[in-house]
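Issue 218. Parser rejects a valid record. Input:
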Amino acid sequence: MKLYESAATPSCRRVSIFLKFLGTDVTRVAVDLKGGENITPEFQSKSASGTVPLLELDDGTYISESTAICRYFEHSVPNNMHLFGRPGLESAQVEMWHRIVEFQGLIAGFQAFRNITGFYSDREHCVSEWGEESKSRAIAFLDKLDNRLSHSSYIAGGILSVADITGFLFINLMKGAFKVDIEGGYSHIHVWHTKLAAMPEFQ
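Output the parser choked on:
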C-alpha cells in the first residue's frame, strides 16, 4: 500500500493526522506538485481527480480525495476513534459540520490562495478578483465557526472528529497565508485551535 502525497498541503495533512489518530501508517511517495508531476499522463491515469493525496492499495486499486481515503482507513483499520461519528445522529452531525467547514471555509481558502498567489498559473486561469472574493467569504465564515465553538467543545459536538481536523487545517491556512489574527479576533476558535495544536496527532 502506498500513499502519494505532497506532505505540506492541507489535503495530505488531513490524511496524515487521521492516520496518526488511528495509530497506523503507510509507505509515502512524494509527488512534486509545483513541478507538475500530478498532471502527467501517468499520474492522471491513477487518480480520478488528478490530485494528491492518492492511495494505492495492494491489489492495484486507487482511491483519490482525502476524505474518501480517510473513510477507507476508518473502516479498514480496527479502532475506537469514531472520527466520522457513530452510526445515527452522531455520524449525521459530523457529516453536516464537516461539509460546512470544508465547503464554506477550507475550499474558499483554497480558492483565495490559488487565485491571489497564482501558484498554479502555469496550468490554470487565475482570477485575482475571485481570489479576493473567496478570501472575504473564508474570513466571513470565521464568525460562524467562532459562534459554533462558543457552544461546543468540538465542531460537531462533544467528540473530536474529522470536522475538527479539517477545521484545524482551515485555521492554519487563514493564519499562515492570510495572516488573520485568530487570537485577537476569534476567542473561541483560538481556545479550540490551541487545544488541538497541543495534541501530538496535530503536530
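Fixed in the parser; the record now loads. The longest strand covers residues 2-5.
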